[in-house]
């Protein structure tokens, strides 16, 4: 198929044009920006450490001040509803993804959409449920990449536009992109995955 | 990686990576932006880069992630780069490249990425799977679907070999 449309050749031509039109910055400038980022990161880590130390001291003082007061009993985690923790982006990444069925969509408060997520885990090209089910309330403008959900043509939508299509039971699998603050910034339909 | 080694790495690969990212995301200014930003992060984390042993793949992956992040952030508004317009003295893209970019944009981003990695970057399917973090079977399916979709989209255009419009520009990226 690739030979039929000369894909290698055409992509090479396209890339060559991109390369020719590029006017990249000097390496020194790139290094200088990298050094600035590094300094900022270290400064942030250092100030975070100070805050953490302050929090630990404050916490210690609070505990000390409680004297003989009885500590509250910790809530027992439920085995049937494991606690959901939003994934955290790794170093150098802006988003972390969660895979899952997205269903039970319902518009709330006019500009938000509540959905249920049945979390999945990919193993050798097949997705299996992890047992985690949780709810999310999203801004109705949250971006959604769709394909089979909207009839087979790839496109971009907003979650508010596809509420009716997602209001039923678990059928459509998405990757949900969480930012560093644990907010969902976009959903991408993962239509090629087989779910066990 | 010391300054000299980094500068040599940058000089030797920045153009090639911009070309590859252009094919993946279809925007020349954006491709240059994200590749440069990825190199900034590469220098910032050069210790990790040395350990990985595949710095070009690292930069390409970070650049792609940056591009995807930006799409999501600015999807409904014009990016700064676009507001600025193209840099001066850069000729507009050739018609057949505009056609190819438009065709690539019509297939899902994941398919576009594996097609570029396999057909432009010359990576084996297994290497594509490693770089994208996907199973080999998924990559094969994405390649197959992406190629079929592209062939369909390009049918009866000047890029369809059956119409005799084959372009003979060959320059390896």
UniProtKB/TrEMBL annotation, chain A:
Q: Where are the transmembrane segments?
A: 43-64
Instruction: Please tell me whether the keyword Membrane is annotated for this protein.
Output: yes
Q: Which UniProt keywords apply?
A: Membrane, Transmembrane, Transmembrane helix
Q: What is this protein called?
A: Uncharacterized protein
The top of its lineage is: Bacteria, Bacillati, Actinomycetota, Actinomycetes, Kitasatosporales
From TrEMBL, chain B:
tRNA processing listed as a keyword: no
From the UniProt record, which GO molecular function terms apply? DNA binding; sigma factor activity
Gene3D superfamilies attached to this UniProt entry: 1.10.1740.10, Winged helix-like DNA-binding domain superfamily/Winged helix DNA-binding domain
Q: Which domain of life is it from?
A: Bacteria
Keywords (A to Z) from UniProt: DNA-binding, Sigma factor, Transcription, Transcription regulation
Domain called RNA polymerase sigma-70 region: residue spans: 15-74
The cross-references to CDD domains, in alphabetical order and at most eight, read: Sigma70_r4
Q: What Pfam families does this protein's entry cite?
A: Sigma70_r2, Sigma70_r4_2
Question: Which GO terms of type biological process are on file?
Answer: DNA-templated transcription initiation
Please state every residue range assigned to the domain named RNA polymerase sigma factor 70 region 4 type. 99-150
Q: Which PANTHER family match?
A: ECF RNA POLYMERASE SIGMA FACTOR SIGM, RNA POLYMERASE ECF-TYPE SIGMA FACTO
Family to which the UniProt record says this protein belongs: Belongs to the sigma-70 factor family. ECF subfamily.
The protein's name: ECF RNA polymerase sigma factor SigW
- UniProt source species: Streptomyces smaragdinus
């Amino acid at each position: 198929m690739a030979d039929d449309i000369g894909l290698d050749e055409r992509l090479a031509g396209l890339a060559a044009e991109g390369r020719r039109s590029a006017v990249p910055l000097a390496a020194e400038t790139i290094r200088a920006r990298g050094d600035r980022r590094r300094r900022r990161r270290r400064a942030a880590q250092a100030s975070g450490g100070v805050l953490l130390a302050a929090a630990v001291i404050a916490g210690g003082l609070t505990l000390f001040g409680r004297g003989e007061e009885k500590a509250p009993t910790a809530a027992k985690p439920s085995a049937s509803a494991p606690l959901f923790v939003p994934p955290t982006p790794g170093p150098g990444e802006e988003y972390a993804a969660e895979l899952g069925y997205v269903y039970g969509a319902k518009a709330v408060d006019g500009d938000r959409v509540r959905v249920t997520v049945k979390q999945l885990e990919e193993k050798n090209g097949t997705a299996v449920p992890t047992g985690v089910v949780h709810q999310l309330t999203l801004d109705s403008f949250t971006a959604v990449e769709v394909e089979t959900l909207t009839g087979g043509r790839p496109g971009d939508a907003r979650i508010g536009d596809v509420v009716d299509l997602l209001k039923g039971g678990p059928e459509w699998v998405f990757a949900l992109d969480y930012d560093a603050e644990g907010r969902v910034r976009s959903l991408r339909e993962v239509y090629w995955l087989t779910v066990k | 990686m010391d300054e000299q080694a980094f500068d040599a790495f940058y000089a030797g690969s920045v153009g090639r990576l911009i070309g590859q990212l252009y094919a993946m995301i279809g925007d020349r200014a954006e491709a240059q932006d994200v590749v440069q930003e990825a190199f900034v992060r590469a220098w910032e984390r050069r210790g990790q880069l040395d350990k990985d042993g595949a710095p070009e793949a690292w930069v390409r992956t970070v650049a792609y992630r940056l591009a995807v992040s930006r799409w999501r952030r600015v999807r409904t508004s014009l990016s700064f780069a676009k507001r600025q317009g193209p840099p001066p003295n850069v000729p507009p893209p050739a018609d057949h490249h505009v056609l190819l970019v438009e065709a690539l944009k019509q297939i899902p981003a994941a398919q576009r990425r594996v097609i570029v990695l396999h057909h432009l970057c010359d990576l084996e399917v297994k290497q594509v799977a490693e770089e994208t973090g996907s199973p080999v079977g998924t990559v094969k399916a994405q390649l197959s679907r992406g190629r079929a979709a592209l062939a369909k989209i390009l049918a009866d255009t000047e890029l369809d070999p059956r119409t005799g419009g084959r372009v003979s520009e060959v320059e390896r990226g």
